[in-house]
Amino acid sequence: MRQTLFPLFILFCLVGCASRSAPPASPTASAAPVPTETLTLSPTDSPTATPIPTATAIRTPPALPGVFQTALQNPVDPPHTYIANTCHYLQDKWSSKNSTPGTVVMPIMFHSIMAPGDTVASDAITQKQFTELMGGLESHGFKGITTAQLASFLYHNAKIPPRSVILIADDRRSAAYFNQYFRTWWVGDKWPVVSAWISSPFDTPQEWQEHEELEKEGWVDNEAHGVVHIPIMPYSSNAYVMGELQGSIDAFKLHFNKMPITFIWPGGNFTPYAVKLARQLGYQLGFTANPRGPLMFNWIPLGDQITPVHGPTWEAEGPLNDPLMLLPRYWDTDAVKYLDDIVKISQDAAAYAQQNKATEQEYYDIVCAPTLGPIP
User: Fold for domain 79-367?
Assistant: First the structure.
């Protein structure tokens, strides 16, 4: 009996244990991948990178060119500049609204034009010479301007004809004088003429009236030439100088209803005190009688000392450091012979400016544009 039960017991255990074993893996099943945790950073969690500054190149302003020089100009009458602010000068020089570099002005003093048959003095010209001079100016492409135009050009490079001439008739000439010689050029070419008017207290009402009418017509530009018309010398009293300058202003306001902007120094003479006072009283320009050369923007030929070339009557304007109050004038007696030279000076000055244009505009861009803005 025991022998029969033991095998049965062993068989029972084997069957029970087999039911508790793990089932075999199916050959077609694959293991599911274990998900991997991904870390996502929000903007606030991201590390902040410190920007690396970009180096800014420092632009060095180029050296500016020197003042235009010409062999056609007497070396004892060198050109002087008068605009202290380089940026303002370059802005006015290269603005497309203004005169182009090389624009030139020829001031001419007409002391006296003699009618046929009159005795011709050393400081006068004949009617024939006058006609030749005016024809020469026209054939060389010159155009007439007023003192107001000249002032705007010299101060700000305002646009004027590239070759301009300012005609100045000295010494209180009659209306008949202007009508005889200059009206034709106004009617034909619109050339005005400056009357260097002596505001003498002895002028008759008719003389004043005639010039008042010429002034109203717009082609005779009366400007101050003193009252007593005795040259201002180092020994002249302050009261006399004031009388010449202020007396002209008072007379012009009374008769011409305007403030004269130009003082044409009687005899071409001046003193440091007279020049300073003229500035204080509001004059913008002044003319000597020294024919040193033509005028260009920020370019005025002056004498720095008295030399044997000129003689004792020529005073040195350079040391006074006010070129616009001491402008030169050509004499009518020989002005015609300088026309070719002035045209050549104009052309050479224009070429010199173009040669240095890039340099000057680069300087302006670096130094001036941050404050003044681009050149108009």
Answer: TIM Barrel (3.20.20)
Q: How many helices (H) and strands (E) does the chain have?
A: 12, 12
- Integer Cα distance of 152 and 154 in angstroms: 6
Domain ranges of the chain: 79-367
Total length of the chain? 376
Kindly report, residue by residue over 142-176, the tens digit of the pLDDT.
999 999 999 999 999 999 999 999 999 999 899 99
Q: Which residue has the tokens 């000392």?
A: 305
Of 317, 321, 309, nearest in space to 289 by CA: 317
Closest to 106 (Cα-Cα) out of 56, 167, 52 = 167
223 vs 369: CA distance, rounded Å = 39
Residue 264: closest CA among 289, 230, 236: 289
- Note the pTM of the prediction, 2 decimals: 0.84
Indicate the range of 121-130, 246-255, 271-280 predicted with least confidence: 121-130
Burial 343-360 (b: 16+ CB within 10 A, else e): bebbebbbebbeebeeeb
CA distances from 323 to 3, 283, 284 (A): 149, 13, 11
pLDDT of residue 11: 33
Residue 69 in this model has a pLDDT that exceeds 60? yes
